[in-house]
Amino acid sequence: MQNDTGSGLGELNFHVVDDEVFIRKLIIRVLGKMGADSEKISSSENGADAIAWLDDTTQPPDIILCDLNMPDMDGVSLMRHLATRKYRGGIILVSGEDKRILKAAEDLARAHDLNFLGALAKPVTPDALESLIKLYDPLASQRTEREGVELTADDLKTAIENKDIFVVFQPQVSVTTRELIGVETLARWIHADKGFIPPDIFVHLAEEKGLIDDLTELVVDLAVTQGGEWLADGLDVKISVNISVDNLNNLKMPEYLGTKCEEAGMDSRSLVLEVTESRLMEDIVTPLEILTRLRLKGHDLSIDDFGTGHASMEQLKRIPFSELKIDRAFVNGAHRDAGAMAILKASVDLAKSMDMLIVAEGVEDQDDWDLVAKLGCDIVQGYFSAKPMPAGDIKVWLQGWLA
Ligand code: C2E
Ligand code: CA
Ligand code: CA
């Protein structure tokens, strides 16, 4: 068998982790039958043994097949250990547990940014196993290694000062009329030597290194200036920017935003501030003051990635949010995922009862669109309508979208 990149199964190293001898042997036998080299298959009885073995070996496996439920260290903890060790090989989960547990473990693997190939329900069949192994792409492992490139606070400081960080805009459209309602501003950084740096990575770095106010000011500046230009050009859209919780300790933030809007000729009601709920922690006095003042000044406050955090309900009650953005984990593919659907519906009901505008993120296809339309979301943001794009492309995209 050849996978998509052409490396034969016989060249791959496998490591099987399962506490049941019978299952271990079965998987090894299936792998052998499929053409794997028995010399290249190793195994462990539980996660702790697997980690000890991994830390010791000079030849990390290309693919780890791992049972979820094991004594000592289960598959979920094993994944965390693999993530801290920046393991880049493929991971296949094997389990006899119910579908929802398996789905949760899958989501976790993705959240850890592991190279997750898929999950297999027991009993393992050669066909199912083969289809997952085919997904293994040795180049993907190298790619992620490159992404793990070291960035320093100085790199970022220089990028902010030199304005190497720029922004793109992703349209937000009305579910009922398809009209363009707003755009979300997303920061981008293409480092001269290190290439594309994902925003999650440099935003996190900025928060860690005390540079987040500088980064946010740059993004706000670019966003609001663009908003003013669009307005002068007859395009009246709301502009959303992402605000980090760390920005909410800066008491000057509301005035700064107000001045920026004024300079650009933009109404403060057109500048929407997105805050991720999971980072709104216990020490909320200053953030609460700032958020309340921002709302008083007319800005819309949007609770971002709704459904993924821990404190959602409590924060919803305390902070005057006017918009709720449902995370794409509960939108994309929700029509075939009962768990996601339940959370999506509950979020919509909650937002409606609190009189908030509902934005569905991650609408990637017609099925997603139809579902959020049926449930009564107001606004859609996702690849189905548009990917993030440079400001200059918005007008052409809009013509095509409304055609
Ligand atoms: P976010 O605020 O949740 O932004 C939406 C992310 O989802 C964007 O990723 C966007 O490109 C992506 N996206 C949009 N539609 C779809 C879709 O249909 N399918 C899929 N799979 N993805 C979709 P991006 O640009 O990589 O940004 C990642 C995160 O980085 C953002 O998540 C936000 O938390 C953070 N970020 C980006 N720019 C800024 C910024 O200027 N300031 C702060 N504080 N955070 C930022
Ligand atoms: Ca956002
Ligand atoms: Ca979001």
Brief rundown of the structure:
The protein has 403 residues and is α/β, with parallel strands linked by helices. The chain has helices at 21-34, 47-56, 75-84, 99-111, 126-133, 138-147, 153-161, 199-208, 212-232, 253-264, 285-296, 312-318, 338-353, 366-375, 394-402; strands spanning 14-17, 41-44, 63-67, 90-95, 115-121, 165-174, 180-191, 195-197, 238-243, 271-276, 300-306, 323-326, 357-361, 379-381.
CATH topology of the largest domain: TIM Barrel
Subunit organisation of the chains? single chain
Number of domains: 2
Arrangement of strands in the largest sheet:
6-7-9-10-11-12-13-14
Order of helices and strands: EHEHEHEHEHHHEEEHHEHEHEHEHEHEH
Number of DSSP E strands: 14
How many DSSP H or I helices? 15
Instruction: Give the C-alpha Rg.
Output: 24 Å
Strand content: 15-25%
Structural write-up:
With 403 residues, the protein is of the alpha/beta class. The chain folds into two domains: 8-141, Response regulator (Rossmann fold, 3-Layer(aba) Sandwich); 146-401, EAL domain (TIM Barrel, Alpha-Beta Barrel). It has helices at 21-34, 47-56, 75-84, 99-111, 126-133, 138-147, 153-161, 199-208, 212-232, 253-264, 285-296, 312-318, 338-353, 366-375, 394-402; strands at residues 14-17, 41-44, 63-67, 90-95, 115-121, 165-174, 180-191, 195-197, 238-243, 271-276, 300-306, 323-326, 357-361, 379-381. It has an eight-stranded mixed beta barrel with strand order 6-7-9-10-11-12-13-14. A five-stranded parallel sheet has the order 2-1-3-4-5, with helices on both faces.
